[in-house]
């Protein structure tokens, strides 16, 4: 096996000639299910020596999406079924780009229009290798299947969103995958609106900071993805949790010496495994733990962390 430092022009050209590729991901949990998916169509692009993206189509599963949200580890494999034998593996860190992400519109322009597109998987490459592929059998490519495209074309955009809301919410291990799209999350009939009033479906905490660019890095270190909108706004996401950072130049959170004694919190976040999360966050030298794992009298297992802005995050596991 030959390790490369980057995707060379020759490898990029060879990749474009392949009709199928395979994507493998896995959850963090040792007992979680590893996933491998075959991909076809004109759905893969090399963006640079260490950057690639592929188009993700609506289907009955969403394992890759869930694993990309949770940890981002991914390997893409191409192998020659025709011509000289060759295998190329691309290891990297994946980010799921859904319609609310600013880069979604950018990536749409790189691919043929397809009604079944539900996301893009953007990968920063940290390792690329090629090998001989002598044991891979020879197959003759006939054509791409059209079944999925026809199925998606027969559904309305709202019908596809409803399908994804039902089928793609979580992985087989229960990890969040594709979150409800805005029109579905807000969906309610006019008659319901008139009779019951508007429905609330979500809320997001907003932290004021003096400088977004420097503060978002801390959250990235504890597992949050950051969508940065210069100069002064950032959306932080980890699994189903979302936090906004809003910049006000020169802002400093007011001192409140008695806040900790009063148990004053800035945000309360529930998790399914407080112990594992505590181990993950407390291992970081820049994580200021103000209260370790504690079982409260009301049954929750909690711990507290102060971020660089002075905001108190409480992580809790329901009893």
Would you kindly provide a brief summary of this structure?
The chain is α+β, with helices and mostly antiparallel strands and 319 residues long. Helix content is 24%, strand content 33%.
Describe the structure.
With 319 residues, the protein is α+β, with helices and mostly antiparallel strands. It folds into two domains: 166 residues, Electron Transport, Fmn-binding Protein, Chain A (Pnp Oxidase, Chain A), CATH 2.30.110; 113 residues, 2,3-Dihydroxybiphenyl 1,2-Dioxygenase, domain 1, CATH 3.10.180. 24% of the residues lie in helices and 33% in strands. It has ten helices and 16 strands. Strand 6 and strand 7 form a beta hairpin. The radius of gyration is 23 Å and the shape is elongated. About 3% of the residues have low confidence.
Structural class: alpha+beta
Q: How much is the radius of gyration in Å?
A: 23 Å
Number of helices, counting only DSSP H or I runs of 4 residues or more: 10
- What is the C-level CATH assignment of the largest domain? Mainly Beta
Number of strands: 16
Mean pLDDT: 88
Observed structural traits:
319 residues, alpha+beta, Pnp Oxidase, Chain A, 2,3-Dihydroxybiphenyl 1,2-Dioxygenase, domain 1, 8-stranded antiparallel beta sheet, 4-stranded mixed beta sheet, 16 strands, elongated
């Amino acid at each position: 096996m030959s390790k490369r430092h980057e995707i060379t022009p020759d490898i990029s050209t060879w990749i474009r000639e392949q009709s199928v590729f395979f994507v493998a991901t896995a959850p963090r949990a040792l007992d979680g299910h590893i996933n491998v998916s075959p991909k076809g169509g004109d759905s893969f692009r090399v963006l640079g020596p260490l950057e690639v993206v592929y188009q993700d189509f609506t289907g009955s599963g969403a394992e890759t999406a869930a694993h990309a949200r949770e940890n981002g580890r991914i390997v893409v494999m191409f192998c020659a079924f025709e011509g000289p034998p060759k295998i190329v593996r691309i290891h990297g860190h994946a980010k799921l780009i859904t319609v609310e992400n600013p880069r979604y519109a950018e990536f749409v322009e790189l691919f043929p229009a397809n009604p079944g597109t539900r996301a893009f998987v953007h990968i920063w490459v940290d390792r690329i290798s090629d090998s001989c592929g002598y044991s891979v059998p020879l197959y003759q490519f006939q054509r791409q299947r059209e079944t999925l495209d026809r199925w998606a074309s027969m559904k309305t955009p709202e019908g596809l969103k409803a399908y994804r809301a039902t089928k793609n919410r979580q992985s087989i291990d229960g990890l969040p995958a594709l979150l409800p799209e805005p029109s579905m999350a807000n969906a309610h009939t006019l008659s319901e609106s008139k009779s019951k009033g508007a429905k609330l479906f979500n809320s997001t905490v907003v932290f004021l900071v003096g400088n977004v660019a420097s503060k978002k890095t801390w959250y990235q270190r504890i597992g949050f993805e950051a969508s940065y909108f210069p100069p002064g706004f950032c959306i932080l996401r980890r699994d189903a949790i979302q936090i906004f950072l809003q910049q006000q130049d020169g802002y400093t959170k007011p001192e409140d010496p008695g806040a900790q004694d009063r148990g004053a919190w800035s945000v309360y976040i529930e998790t399914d495994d407080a112990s594992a999360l505590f181990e993950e966050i407390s291992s970081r030298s820049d994580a200021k733990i103000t209260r370790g794992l504690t079982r409260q009298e009301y049954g929750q297992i909690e711990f507290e962390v102060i971020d660089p802005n002075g905001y108190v995050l409480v992580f809790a596991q329901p009893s």
